[in-house]
Amino acid sequence: xxxxxxxxxxxxxxxxxxxxxxxxxxxxxxxxxxxxxxxxxxxxxxxxxxxxxxxxxxxxxxxxxxxxxxxxxxxxxxxxxxxxxxxxxxxxxxxxxxxxxxxxxxxxxxxxxx
Amino acid sequence: xxxxxxxxxxxxxxxxxxxxxxxxxxxxxxxxxxxxxxxxxxxxxxxxxxxxxxxxxxxxxxxxxxxxxxxxxxxxxxxxxxxxxxxxxxxxxxxxxxxxxxxxxxxxxxx
Lengths: 114, 111
Prior knowledge:
Radius of gyration of chain A: 13 Å
Structural class of chain A: mainly beta
Helix content of chain B: under 10%
Distance between the termini of chain B: 38 Å
Distance between the termini of chain A: 37 Å
Number of helices of chain B: 0
Number of strands of chain B: 11
Number of strands of chain A: 11
Oligomer: heterodimer
Largest sheet of chain B: 6 strands, mixed
Strand content of chain A: over 45%
Radius of gyration of chain B: 13 Å
Strand content of chain B: over 45%
Structural class of chain B: mainly beta
């Protein structure tokens, strides 16, 4: 069964450093998403991406965040200058359609900012 | 504020019993609801969805009920198994808006 893959599974970084989280969505999906989950809390929407541009973003997704689809398979989330409060599990997801609740999530990248 | 939420943060059931997980939403315009299961160390996994023109939808061992009058959604799991232990999230999707998750209910199955 096709799946969304994310790397790395864990990332430790110093405050102020840049991090890039990587994702390979399901190959025939056209819509891509990043969500995050702070430990023990709900899953929060960050950004959706379609046709090489951001479709929608939340208040969390400020100027420190950016997304990119550098080639035909990868989808990345960059945090330019990490803060302590960026520590969370970051999930990439993809879907076949936009108006759908059926998202396929990866296993996540646990980001720890020290 | 958030438009979806859950009545109970934890639920413990005996193996073989039925489980009922509840969810409340506040946005009357919501027209699409989804249940996700999140096992430890994994991302959320789609279980079942329901559109607002339906009251009930059944899957394999799971049933989702929607009561639009009181803005309430529930997930029923029949014959709960140890593998059902996870955190369950309801989520809302209206039109092309991003999926909004509730806070989650942790289901623990007692063998």
